[in-house]
Design goal:
Blueprint (H helix, E strand, L loop, with lengths): L4 H10 L13 H5 L5 E7 L1 H6 L7 E8 L5 E10 L4 H4 L5 E4 L2 H6 L7 E5 L6 H20 L6 E10 L5 E9 L2 H7 L2 E3 L13 H14 L12 E6 L6 E4 L36 H13 L1 H9 L6 H20 L18
Parallel strand pairs: 1-6
Antiparallel strand pairs: 1-2, 2-3, 3-4, 4-5, 5-7, 6-7, 8-9, 9-10
Length: 346
């Protein structure tokens, strides 16, 4: 595959810029973050949560964990169900946890108080498998760029205040978007719909689109600001994006996921390229960057021993299909929507 060295260099310069990003002095997420799994306990009324998954009301909860200094932490928080689709179909909805800015200030922490908890959705091993696969999505994106939401894998013990149940399953804590913005001296643009592509960093857009294609995810939209955060540097630079929610991807292959009818997707995992039209040289440069990261990406999957061997094998096979496609040349149709039909989510 021919490569435009100039474009590839631009991508490589943009991606590792995290090293020079502005780092908050001390945040709650910094206390939570570590290699491996963090064990936490969330005490709340499970019946109240389950009876109120369709509203936006917060309910009291206590959040406990041991921070990365070895100190026991206990926080009075509020939680609510979140997610447009998962709260309707999941046995256990994803959550938003509000820690309260006053409590953070008292402990000398920056005021980033809202964390998303991606939960197991389904009880048992299948729920854990989907959560672990989705966590891999965040890990793989971080292999490609530092401009990404930090994700912490957690093992959550849900303790029922009514005393009847205790559930322990894997989940994913995502950092507050305001903290992500602060790390890169940017601001979130919450009402940015239909912005001209010329206002975005082109390399960042290409990387996101090809990543979404790699994992077989069509559940995102730049125009509709769907399942991605749009951020604007305070210095007036171009907008950039950070994706999230990968459960409808072929990488995760969640049992509840459904194909995207707007794109005529026939099955979950059918790769459909949703990036903007571009010159072949630009797409080839992005593809070359992914190829340079191939072994690192595959090693991350192979070494993720928490995921069952069978699942790791499925994920590796699926990702290798993407890299095989790059080796033979990525083909797009005229409107830039469809990848090669040989790509499969199975």
């Amino acid at each position: 595959m021919k490569t435009s060295f100039k474009c590839l260099l631009a991508i490589c310069l943009f991606l590792p810029a995290m090293a020079g990003a502005s780092q908050p002095s001390s945040t709650l997420f910094n206390l939570l973050e570590r290699n491996g799994v963090l064990k936490v306990e969330l005490e709340l009324s499970l019946s109240t949560l389950e009876e109120n998954t369709k509203n936006e009301n917060y309910y009291p909860a206590t959040f406990r964990f041991t921070d990365n200094t070895g100190a026991a932490q206990e926080w009075d928080t509020r939680v609510r169900a979140r997610g447009r689709y998962r709260r309707r179909v999941c046995d256990f909805p994803p959550l938003k946890i509000d820690f309260g800015k006053d409590d953070l200030q008292k402990k000398g922490l920056m005021p980033f108080d809202d964390l998303k908890l991606v939960t197991h959705c389904m009880d048992g091993d299948d729920g854990d498998d989907a959560a672990l696969r989705e966590y891999l999505g965040y890990v793989l994106y971080q292999k490609l760029t530092g401009y990404s939401l930090r994700a912490q894998l957690v093992e959550v013990a849900y303790k029922d205040t009514d005393g009847r149940r205790k559930i322990t399953q894997y989940g994913i804590l995502l950092e507050d978007v305001d903290e992500l913005a602060a790390r890169f001296d940017s601001e979130e643009c919450e009402e940015c719909y239909g912005l001209p592509l010329a206002q975005f960093d082109a390399d960042n857009l290409r990387l996101n689109a090809l990543f979404q294609y790699m994992i077989g995810n069509t559940d995102w939209s730049l125009a509709m600001n769907r399942n991605l955060k749009i951020l604007k540097p305070k210095n007036g630079g171009p907008y950039w994006i950070a994706p999230y929610d990968f459960d409808f991807s072929g990488l995760v292959n969640a049992p509840y996921a459904v194909p995207n009818p707007d794109l005529k997707q026939q099955y979950i995992g059918q790769r459909i390229y949703m990036g903007a039209e571009q010159a072949n040289s630009e797409l080839e440069s992005a593809a070359a960057y992914f190829q340079s990261k191939k072994q690192e990406i595959l090693d991350a999957v192979e070494q993720f021993s928490l995921l069952r061997r069978r699942s790791r094998k499925e994920v590796l096979q699926y990702l290798n299909g993407f890299f095989d496609e790059l080796d033979t040349g990525l083909v797009l149709n005229r409107d830039g929507l469809s990848g090669k039909p040989k790509s499969s989510g199975k």
